[in-house]
Amino acid sequence: MPELPEVEIVARNLRSWAGGKRLSAVDLRDSSLLAEPTLRNGLVGRTLASVQRRAKHLVAHLDDEALIFHFRMTGKLVQVEAEEPRFLRMLMSFEDGTRVGFKDQRRLGTVLRLPSEQVEAFFLERGLGPEPWPEARDGLWWQERYRGSRGPLKPALMVQERVAGLGNILATEICWQARLDPQAPTSGLDQAQWQRVAQATKSVIERTLSLESGPEVHYLAEAGASRTSPFSVYGREGLGCPRCQSPIARFRQSGRSTFWCAPCQTR
Ligand SMILES: [Zn+2]
Question: From the CA of 141, how far away is ligand 1's center (Å)?
């Protein structure tokens, strides 16, 4: 499932492929998208004015209207060459011949069309909190965002109303990078500990961006240990902690897998 960095990569890719170009055709391949009448008419002739990421959503502004993509499990935008990839649900062609496809094997992703001026309200209605990146966020900012929050740290990091864009993988990695127990009560963290969360979030996001950038963003599987994983603890149960070499443990937390190193992640 894509999290903030993967959607950021897709946004950068779309900008570089088609930014400033005019749509010449929109080909809907999927019955659920065909059922969305706003996708059928009036998109051709519009210019891709800008591309924005908001949490795990991608917003493609076509003149004064916007397509909001939510990729869910397997959705992504890919550049389509002569040979079409499998699982295309939508194909957008631009006047210079550039083609961009919405590829989505599980078909859980969504596309919505809205006037651009309604986009902010759309996200507000969904209760999306502010972005942790790329704006500089310090420990005090994090502490303020989590004022009144109950429960353990790792699931709290995934609450989109507090801070938007972090999912299970990033939250797991941030706890490790910040040397904090994923089960530590959020209300007990002091400002110095929040400062470590702030620094860890920035470094984990930027590291993921540098490792996963490419013409077709690659989503890492949610399950399964891998020795080639780019992550420090996620998916690495039983392998050595990169910091202290202790074996990494795994447990269920709010229904999701958490990986951690007990000796170096404390409260
Ligand atoms: Zn360790």
Answer: 27
ipTM of the complex: 0.99
CA of 6 to the centre of ligand 1 (A): 26
Query: Is residue 56 annotated as part of the catalytic site, yes or no?
Result: yes
The one catalytic residue in 53, 56, 145, 154 is 56
Q: Does any domain span residue 76?
A: yes
Q: Per-10-residue mean pLDDT for the chain, 267 residues long?
A: 90 97 94 78 94 96 96 92 93 97 93 95 94 96 96 97 95 98 97 98 92 74 50 93 97 94 96
DSSP code of residue 231: S
The count of C-alpha atoms lying within 13 angstroms of the C-alpha of 235, restricted to the half-sphere facing its C-beta, is 15
- 200 CA → ligand 1 middle, Å: 15
Is 188 in the same domain as 99? no
d(CA 20, CA 18): 6
**Is 131 inside a domain boundary?**
no
Enclosing domain of residue 207: 139-260
Q: How far apart are CA 133 and CA 68, in angstroms?
A: 20
